[in-house]
DNA sequence: TGGTTTGTTTGTCATGGACAAAACAGAACG
DNA sequence: CGTTCTGTTTTGTCCATGACAAACAAACCA
């Protein structure tokens, strides 16, 4: 008994897909897709299936594909492409590390059933909407592995697996949402049990405006707090200028940002550079998340600008690397 | 030593103010404000002060003022206007209840120092960036008052007070962020300590795409969970269609949505109506938050459509009313 | 093989016109 | 005096088209 899925206006599609109005109109003009119907006033009405397709395409673009190549592809092939993982075409390979979460590197193949049994089990519970079972499974894993390993070996890969399952159409958005909420709750919970406050680097964690995903941030916070660092979480969407103010006010040693793969790619490097310029030189800038690699250009810019290498910007391609960075920081200072 | 605050592009302004590109251009055309400079390519560059003004104006509009009246007003008067609170002009009064948080009604004047001492103290700590003190104050209040009263009497009014202080320029965005994070942590923490699961209504909590504020949702969740209700939190930004799926999958009795004052007003009623139409009739729809009043039109529409009163849509103008709604629901059923 | 140059692709911005829904103001009416 | 009903203004959003710079791919040369 499927509801008849009504058509969407252009602004609704913008919300649901993350593709701007201008982009949607440009694609229509150039590629002939999407090809929305029109209402009485001549305004676009996008059929639901086209919106689904747009969502999928958006996700593929975030992985390094390009629109021109995708619009012509048949739906089936598109799904298959999505299942395969990150695009391997040309230079886009630079994005690979950024998209895959840390520990996944060990698992050669994301979609074969070679996943860790724990992750398999969690996925099953998610699909079955069995909240209690999911909670129990995760809680058990947390207790068995400890926070550190749990974050690195379980949460990371599981999040990737969920994302990939979504791409394959095996998991609905709301299931992903629910999973995310559960993990957040769990991490916050164990976080609040930590001794808290005190030691060495004071880390300010946040995302820039337009970036809503804070799960990665929370994972890093868990790891750092576990090592005794003092974390100051600002939540999502802190304007650049306020980050500078906050860093000053809280005497932060490090500002940690997270960029997801869906963050507008073009803006990453400029924004990071700008922020770098605004912060006091002794404050380090750590960049993580699926879109972190895109900040490479900013590192280069900062390097030339300061006549020194990678001056104060550090890209964290994995969760492990956050811990390494922490070690480095500590050994470099008192 | 203020940094020279660079100019912003139109998309940056859109992000920072919440005003759409089209709107920004339309205002410029019609009112002559903002009046951005242009770069070499003819693209708009907004000076920082104009962006500040835009932010303020946006907030005033969310409170019921109208752009045409505001653009001409001097900056000082604007701030004064902001400090005074909600617009009292004409019919806009209907918005009053929606913007003010529950318990504030008792406090006749938000800006006079007539605030509860507890709230005064918390505000002081926020302004001083004294995280430990803030945590301690809040924790103490939580323990003394219990979750229920803490949420209704402290968190609600305090959040309003923080918002108003921001309007008066007494509090920075990042301070508001930090405060919000702290409260969220606290609530989640006490939430995780609740027996959990089980009793009567199964409530699905989320916001629609474009609505990021989940604090209100968390407050309601705390209250409902305290009364034994089963809460299923989906976090923010669940697409309409997925809400329907989730409601089915989790056999929800109630779907609770939250709209902040900054949610695009025009969309509230249509969206709520649409969702109402998609959900099974026996599932109730509860609407809360600063922008909830705007859903009144949807209630009316649902009423005429169903030839029955307020069919299945309930607007919660305050936190208390959530508890009342719960009672009503329970006494109406088994 | 590695670096540079030359087309292409692609997102975003600008202009100017249009329109419908909402907000308002004022008249008419009970 | 308060309410309901109009006509008018305000306001956000949409449309079409054109333009351009940055990112990319591919051909090219050393």
From TrEMBL, chains A, B:
Domain HTH merR-type, residue spans: 7-64
Keyword annotations of the record: DNA-binding, Repressor, Transcription, Transcription regulation
Recorded GO MF terms: cobalamin binding; DNA binding; DNA-binding transcription factor activity; metal ion binding
Spans traversing the lipid bilayer: none
PROSITE patterns: B12_BINDING, HTH_MERR_2
Sequence ranges assigned to domain B12-binding in this UniProt record: 200-330
Entry keyword Nucleus: no
InterPro entries documented for this protein: Cbl-bd_cap (IPR003759), Cobalamin-bd (IPR006158), Cobalamin-bd_sf (IPR036724), DNA-bd_dom_put_sf (IPR009061), MerR-type_HTH_dom (IPR000551), MerR_fam (IPR047057), Meth_synthase_dom (IPR036594)
PANTHER family (UniProt xref): MERR-FAMILY TRANSCRIPTIONAL REGULATOR, REDOX-CYCLING DRUG-SENSING TRANSCRIPTIONAL ACTIVATOR SOXR
Name of the molecule in the record: MerR family transcriptional regulator
The species this protein was found in: Rhodocyclus tenuis (Rhodospirillum tenue)
